């Protein structure tokens, strides 16, 4: 392609690392690529994410794309609202990083080794609810800020631990400071955590085909679709207390042939519980091509088990 491809990115270390992987993949095809930094309201505000709303990190990038200031935008997939945006196409979902959450605790401690009363920092209602549901007597402290700011609260002795996505730490080169990678049995990640969403303008077919043929990963798209269908069916936004993890697993069909299926686990806070101490959990398996339906089915099962349908503005 002869035109220069302008990729819009937020200016954070994490965003630049994420965008950098896409820029490198495009440059490897011989394309000429330019990075354009876009500041979002989410970068300027220090208010808790649930109060400033879903989309704080993504809307400004989408506006720059629609205004044709950039041609490609890269998001953390888990930060994208579930509602599709007119005029914007999800052109690629690159191969996902490790989707699990990670604990960074003082003195190399694991979750089970933190004594009751220990302080754990997180701004995520999903992580808060799951940590509380473990019944370890941990004191959850709401925090915000970029990954470095959060990690500093542990090294400064202000908090005993923080919980962050493994993928983000890996992308900025700090994964070796993780003291425990949390098992999804204890802590289900946010839907699509560890995955990126690469968008372009609808109808910009050159860019769409280029992204589709260079950075798209079919398996990641399928698992992220299942997880986000579950989220959408619960009417929840990116920081609501909903966790989901889908994985491609090998199974045998009726004739004994090996087939790939999607296994999906989900969790949601029980309705009416203001502090979200109680979480319901469920799992299901479906054909690889029924990702969307699988997410909806599992959401219905969670609702039957008492999960609160999260209405109103997504948070
Ligand atoms: N909401 C913040 C956010 N959005 C994306 C990531 C990095 C992990 C990812 O790409 O899923 C993070 C940080 C975190 O949750 O620790």
Automatic annotation (TrEMBL):
The keyword Transferase applies. The modification S-(dipyrrolylmethanemethyl)cysteine is found at residue 238. The keyword Transferase applies. It holds the Pfam family Porphobil_deamC. It catalyses: 4 porphobilinogen + H2O = hydroxymethylbilane + 4 NH4(+). It comes from the Bacteria. Binds 1 dipyrromethane group covalently. Belongs to the HMBS family. PANTHER family: PORPHOBILINOGEN DEAMINASE (PTHR11557:SF0). The porphobilinogen subunits are added to the dipyrromethane group. HAMAP family: Porphobil_deam (MF_00260). This is Porphobilinogen deaminase. It comes from Amycolatopsis oliviviridis. The lineage of its organism: Bacteria, Bacillati, Actinomycetota, Actinomycetes, Pseudonocardiales.
């Amino acid at each position: 392609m002869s035109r220069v491809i302008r990729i819009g990115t937020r200016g954070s270390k994490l965003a630049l690392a994420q965008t950098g992987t896409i820029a490198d993949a495009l440059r490897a095809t011989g394309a000429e690529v330019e990075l354009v930094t876009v500041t979002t309201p989410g970068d300027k505000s220090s208010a808790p994410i649930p109060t400033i709303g879903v989309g704080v990190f993504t809307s400004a990038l989408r506006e720059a794309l629609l205004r044709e200031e950039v041609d490609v935008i890269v998001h953390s997939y888990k930060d994208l609202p579930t509602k599709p945006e007119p005029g914007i196409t999800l052109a690629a979902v690159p191969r996902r990083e490790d989707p699990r959450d990670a604990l960074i605790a003082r003195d190399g401690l694991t979750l089970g080794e933190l004594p009751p009363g220990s302080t754990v920092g997180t701004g995520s209602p999903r992580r808060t609810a799951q940590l509380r549901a473990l019944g370890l007597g941990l004191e959850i402290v709401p925090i915000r800020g970029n990954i470095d700011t959060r990690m500093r609260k542990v090294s400064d002795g202000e908090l005993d631990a923080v919980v962050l996505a493994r993928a983000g730490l890996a992308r900025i080169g700090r994964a070796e400071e993780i003291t425990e990678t949390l098992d999804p049995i204890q802590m289900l990640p946010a839907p699509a955590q560890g995955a990126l969403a690469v968008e372009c303008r609808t109808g910009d077919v050159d860019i769409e085909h280029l992204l589709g043929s260079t950075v798209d990963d079919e398996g990641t798209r399928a698992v992220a679709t299942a997880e986000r269908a579950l989220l959408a069916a619960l009417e929840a936004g990116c920081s609501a207390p909903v966790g989901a993890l889908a994985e491609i697993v090998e199974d045998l069909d009726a004739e004994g042939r090996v087939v790939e299926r999607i296994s999906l686990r989900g969790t949601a806070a029980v309705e009416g519980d203001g502090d979200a101490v109680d979480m319901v959990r469920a799992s299901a398996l479906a054909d690889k091509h029924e990702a969307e339906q699988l997410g909806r089915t599992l959401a219905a099962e969670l609702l039957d088990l008492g999960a609160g349908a999260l209405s109103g503005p997504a948070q």
